[in-house]
Amino acid sequence: MYKQLIRPILFCFDPEAVHYFTFSAVRFANKIPGVSAILKSCYAVNDKRLEREVFGLKFKNPVGLAAGFDKDAKLYKELSDFGFGFIEIGTLTPKGQEGNPKTRLFRLREDSAIINRMGFNNGGVEEAVQRLKANNGVLIGGNIGKNKVTPNEEAVRDYEICFDALYDYVDYFVVNVSSPNTPNLRALQDKEPLTQLLQTLQTRNATKPKQKPILLKIAPDLTDEQLLDIIDIVKETKIAGVIATNTTISRDGLQSVNKIEMGGLSGKPLTKRSTEVIRFLSEKSNKAFPIIGVGGIHTAEDAIEKLEAGASLVQLYTGFIYEGPALVKAINKKILEKA
């Protein structure tokens, strides 16, 4: 029903406007008695064989919602009704910021893709914390970044602020230094500044009553040499794992007229490269750390490929928009078929 009826209507309108409309609609519908239960019965797959224990956390199934969809933790409970095993919020920054000027979100229908240059638009970490205080059982990842106005030399402090604010309210952290939409942010992926950033957060983590897993989200545009550096950095800093991958700045092979837009590309064009990165990290590290696979998952088979390449968990974003919530169920069903 989604692809035949709902998506064609939604795709007639501006992507960002549709995003906010959909949020409002899901929130409104969820207030109607029984709707939450109906959604769960339609999309959730409850089976012990789907459970995964990864970096010390128990996931009811390995299919999550990637960061960027529920930036401000406004809809995590309602979104979990669609069968996700976990929800990643953010990217959050210490202070709220508008992000980049509109228009900043573009569909590439011919490519089943999206280009975004949102620029970490969010209401700030403290606003999200207030909403997370109402969480009752949804496993939450907290994706953190720096404010646009913060120079790279002072970026570590922004990540520390977000880490401290979210510590009591998220189950794991994701350090985002790989978005292409904040000026110079990707420079923090270089070995020296990245090691310093992660080591600082790990030192801070060690002072807490219970250490929370810290993951690093990386770009798909890294070279093999840079990926080997990532393996070294994970080993040196002892972070919990890696999320592979963020959006790409590549435009190879695109058909859509919107391919000229600046920003990060997600969707089907990223399927192959994301899986390649997962396999490279898994093989070259000898499976030394968990990987969350994200990028171009539009079918259950796409998800299985990433799991077989070495991912422990997977996440959806653009595939969820193009294929609808039935994709979550299809992936979990396919995993059970192979169990």
Main sheet summary: 8 strands, parallel, barrel
| Helical stretch tally | 12
So what's the CATH class? Alpha Beta
Head-to-tail CA distance between termini: 29 Å
Report the CATH superfamily: Aldolase class I
Which shape, going by the Cα principal axes? Answer: globular
Kindly estimate the percentage of residues that lie in beta strands according to DSSP.
15-25%
Question: What is the string of helix and strand elements?
Answer: HHHEEEHEEEHEHEHEHEEHEHEHH
> If you consult CATH, what is the topology?
TIM Barrel
Q: Look at the structure and give the mean pLDDT.
A: 97
Which structural class is indicated by helix and strand composition? alpha/beta
Strand order, largest beta sheet: 3-4-7-8-9-10-12-13
The percent range for helix content is 25-40%
Number of domains: 1
Catalytic activity: (S)-dihydroorotate + a quinone = orotate + a quinol
EC number: 1.3.5.2
Family: Belongs to the dihydroorotate dehydrogenase family. Type 2 subfamily.
Subunit structure: Monomer.
Characterization of the model:
- This protein is of the alpha/beta class and about 350 residues long.
- It has one domain (about 1-339): TIM Barrel, CATH 3.20.20.70.
- Helix content is about 40%, strand content about 15%.
- It is built from 12 helices and 13 strands.
- The protein has helices at about 1-10, 15-30, 35-45, 75-80, 125-130, 155-165, 190-205, 225-235, 270-285, 300-310, 320-325, 325-339, and strands at about 50-55, 55-60, 65, 85-90, 105-110, 115, 140-145, 170-175, 215-220, 240-245, 265, 290-295, 315.
- The strands form 3 sheets. Strands 3-4-7-8-9-10-12-13 form an 8-stranded parallel beta barrel, surrounded by 5 helices.
- A hairpin with a 4-residue loop joins β5 and β6 (about 115).
- The longest helix has 16 residues, at about 15-30.
- The radius of gyration is 19 Å and the shape is globular.
- The mean pLDDT is about 95.
- It is an enzyme of class 1 (oxidoreductase).
